[in-house]
Model the fold of this input.
Amino acid sequence: MSPSPSISPDTRPTDSTTPPTDRGTATATTDTATDPTPTPEPPPTPATGQARTTAPLTPSTLRTIVRELAERPEEWIHHVRLSTEERWYRRLAADEDHEVWLISWLPGQSTGFHDHGGSRGAFTVALGELEELSLGGPDQGLLIRRVPAGTARAFGPEYVHDVRNTAVGPAVTLHAYSPPLSSMAHYDLRAGGLVRTSEEGPEQW
Ligand SMILES: [Fe+2]
Done:
């Protein structure tokens, strides 16, 4: 009974973000990034919902949302576009609690390191394959993960990552954020670690 966002066209121009589950295999695996501040699971709330939860949806709930939406391609596949200029993206649904985005990635397209402005998030690869880079603990350094079709990632409010398509074909992903994204900061990875370089808000999306 996870929230089931009703898809409504977004009037904003397309732009880029982070995204959905791959439905290629029945044995899809799920990987969850460390959430440093786990929170109790709030009661699921419909994305169309009238009621608003007092706490953000958890990464686990967001992961369920994108995974289940990926299993219903009839609700989003006809929206997918590809852009050679940058990642293409479209917001599929939004309410006070969370929002859902659809993103396509051509080979070589990437986000760069970024945070999510304090929002929790999840994404799943529906088609294709992506690669995710993040910084682990002091003994781990840079972590590089394959995120193939059917895989979902979920993360807490402090998470910073770089997502890229290093495969030879396009990828399509679904993403959910709670609360809805209010800002995103970008970072450069330098010898001493991540250095914040810029911040953008919804007006850039
Ligand atoms: Fe992201």
